[in-house]
Amino acid sequence: MAPWFAEQLKPHAQEMAAQAGRPYRHLTAHERMEENARALAERDQIADGLVCVYGAMETCSTFRVRYDDQGPKVSPDRRVCLVVYFYFLDREFGLMHVKIQTWFPFTVQVYVNGHEYLARRLAHTGIDFQKVDNAFIRLADVERAQGDVRGFWRRDWPKLLNCLARRVNPLMGDWLAGQNYDWIINEAEFSTDVMFADRSALASLRPALYDHAATCFGAEQVMTFLGRKYRETFQGEVRTHWHRREPGAAVKHGIKGNAIKMYDKAGTVLRIETVINEPGEFFVHRPRLKLDGSEEVGWFPMSKGVANRYRYAQVGQQANERYLEALAVVNDLGVGQRELDRRCAPVFFQGRRRRGLQPLGRDDQALFQAVLRGEHAVRGFRNGELAERLFGSRPKDPRERRQRCGRVSRRISLLRGHGLVAKVPRSRRYRVTGSGHRFMSTAIQVRTNLFARGLAVRG
Asked: Is residue 203 located within the same domain as residue 312?
């Protein structure tokens, strides 16, 4: 039966192409399908409908009948089979493609691009823009564009996806009549673009941005960007890769299957992009059934279902905003001689004398790094949290705990006296000030980069 089903799908794809007067090609080698389809659409001036159909042999997830002492058994397998790509030019989504494998379970993948969707919306509403590749380098009304792009997530996706599946899978009209696919989000990319007035503005700032991201964003910061709190029990790997070679320079931070990337587009757009492959690392507010049949509502791990598409957008936008906020100090990095002299001199705070800072000293560097940890960026920090970072786990002896609390309080007062941190009103938390971010980040960069390199050269 399986070969018979496969033989139904290929003729159906060829017939669809013939009825639309579009080409069907079997690709024997790796080719850039999307570029070819886009070139065909431009050449033939297609405004809506099927552009082309491609067939290719690929390794897919399917099943195989195996035999043992107990008889035949169906088990999952990875096998090479024919895969068909349908490229459409849609009036709403622009160039998109639907991919179907011709072997059971006839998996369907749909690829759509939010930038194509936004371009269509802007053209429909008459907002002037200039788009290069998949980046907008000019927008006449940014706020209106941000409002339009929200419609990309707020729609009945299962209904749309089922319509596309019925177009490419003829079996849904007979053998699979009445059945629908279980749709999931296989991979989501949510990007935030910062547009610059000209190339020189971004070119002068970009090296410092990349250097700061690769040097100062450790595991704690990356996990905080993605809405996670770093714990010592974390099982996984956090990676940072800086590709320096042009073109294609980029910084990528990966945590398990998810990532945050920074790169530029067209020389005038800085893009921060969150990639979600493992949504179970995030949480969504939803109901769930308990073992006793009752229902409870709370924050639970997020699944790949398309019903969570709005939460994907929230997670991506929040991660990009945190990343950009952490980068905001880069243009302010650098300390003048007058400020350095002031920070290194004693100050009076709350009626008591506080010593001058030692920005390159080991103790003050440890204090700076503890205060600037990623998990403190959102809610600030408390005395106990800072104590754990500086001195380790909480001691059992009450006297030792009081002594440690006093030592940390004096360090916080030192930073407050120099204006590097401030108390959050009506709470026991503290936050880093803007000048504190700039001064402490500069001190860390000098010690870890310039100072260390100088020593290495002398040695």
From this structure: yes
Distance between CA atoms of 264 and 249, rounded to whole angstroms? 8
The pTM (predicted TM-score) of the whole model is 0.73
Q: List CB contacts of 376: < 8 A, sequence separation 6 or more.
A: 385, 431, 432
**Dist CA 136 CA 124 (whole Å):** 16
How would you classify residue 251: left for phi > 0, otherwise alpha for psi between -120 and 50, otherwise beta? Answer: beta
Q: Which of 413, 406, 403 is nearest to 354 (CA)?
A: 413
Task: Looking at the structure, tell me whether residues 49 and 160 fall in a common domain.
Answer: yes
Helix H or strand E encompassing 53? strand 49-68
Task: Please tell me whether residues 175 and 59 are part of one structural domain.
Answer: yes
Residue pair 152/96 in contact by the 8 Å Cβ criterion: no
Here the CATH number for the domain that contains residue 380 is: 1.10.10
* Helical residues (DSSP H) of 245-288, grouped into ranges: none
pLDDT digits (tens, 9 = 90+) for 375-429: 676 678 899 989 988 888 888 888 898 999 999 999 999 999 999 999 998 888 9
Joined tokens for residue 320 = 């990009």
In a domain, 314, yes or no: yes
My answer on whether 379 and 303 are in the same domain is no
User: Do residues 42 and 179 both lie within one domain?
Assistant: yes
Residues 173 and 207 in one domain: no
Q: In the beta sheet, which residues pair with residue 430?
A: 381, 423
**How far, in Å, CA of 237 to CA of 361, rounded?**
30
- The burial class, CB within 10 Å (0-12 / 13-18 / 19+), for 1 is exposed
User: What proportion of the chain, given as a percentage, has pLDDT over 70?
Assistant: 93
pLDDT of residue 62: 86
- Over residues 280-319, the pLDDT tens digits come to 989 998 888 888 888 899 999 999 999 898 899 999 999 9
Which 8-state DSSP code applies to residue 184?
B
Neighbouring C-alpha atoms within 13 Å toward the C-beta of 36: 15
- Residue at 437 is within a domain: yes
Q: Phi/psi at 151 (nearest 5 deg)? A: -65, -15
Q: At residue 96, does pLDDT exceed 90?
A: yes
Same domain, 32 and 158: yes
What is the C-alpha separation between 305 and 286, in angstroms, rounded?
13
Domain ranges, residue 276: 190-328
Q: Is 441 contained in some domain?
A: yes
Cα separation of 361 and 443, whole Å? 10
Residue 154 confidence (pLDDT): 78
pLDDT of residue 304: 92
